[in-house]
Amino acid sequence: MTLAFVNGRYLPLSQARVSVEDRGFQFADGVYEVVAIVGGRLVDVDGHMDRLARSLGELRIAWPMSRPALSLIMGELVRRNGVTTGLVYLQITRGTAPRDFRFPVPPVRPTLVMTVRRVARFGSPTQLADGVAVITIPDIRWLRRDIKSVSLLPQVLGKQQAVEAGAFEAWMTDADGLVTEGCSSNAWIVTDAGVLVTRPADHLILDGVTRRSLLRIAGELGVATEIRPFSVAEARSAPEAFLSSATTFALPVTRIDGQPVGTGRPGNLTRRLRQVYLETVCGVRP
Ligand code: PLP
Predict the structure, then answer these.
(1) What digits encode the pLDDT tens for the residues 134-186?
(2) Residues 134 and 113 occupy one common structural domain
(3) CA distances (Å), 286 to each of 103, 155, 188, in order?
(4) CATH code for the domain in which residue 23 is found
């Protein structure tokens, strides 16, 4: 039986409930995190908790419990579900109150929901061997994409468009044709000179926890890095492109809008970054 954690209780998933007046449901007034589980351990959990703290702070949502308690429960939920390879989903909303745009006065207890799901792997053998396809779409989101809010409708529509086009992900572009990020991932290219390029983590993208770790790894490996936006045209003609997220790690992108990236094969730097990420962050022995 799969267990969820809802507002202080471990419950069978089928009995896990929040109110119809929850502000997450009514207004998408909440934040979330997705953390990978590898070998029964939470991957990059400090980075995810740091970002959660930031998201909550930006929206002025209180912690439902202390940060150490939250981390402990996350680990306990993974243990109780016996999941060794999977994902934890954590959502915190401003809580349940009669529907009113204004923050509830007095404040109500934030809603905390955690679920755990088994996954077979973080990127299939085919995806790793051949890379994945992305399409490009206009970025129609709000201007605080740095907050990991549960308001994800543009990404829902973008992903669906990608699926219908036979692609894995949609890369969103700004008015200048520069790639912001994927619907649920950060976007990267490698230049002819072997320089790793990804967009700055300002308000226009989500600062991926995986992105941060990959940048640190690149630095440790002595890989030159440029933090700057890149266009769809530059990405199409780049020797390598890839995407990153907690659910995919570094995953090669070999087609953009139906055109091959470089030779159309996954690149060596992508492979190397993924390998080192697996070894050093996920603790997977080579
Ligand atoms: N960008 C967006 C819009 C995302 O939704 C995500 C993950 O869900 C990412 C980037 C990657 O972030 P992380 O590496 O923390 O999973």
Answers:
(1) 999 999 999 999 999 999 999 999 999 999 999 999 999 999 999 999 999 99
(2) no
(3) 50, 34, 24
(4) 3.30.470.10
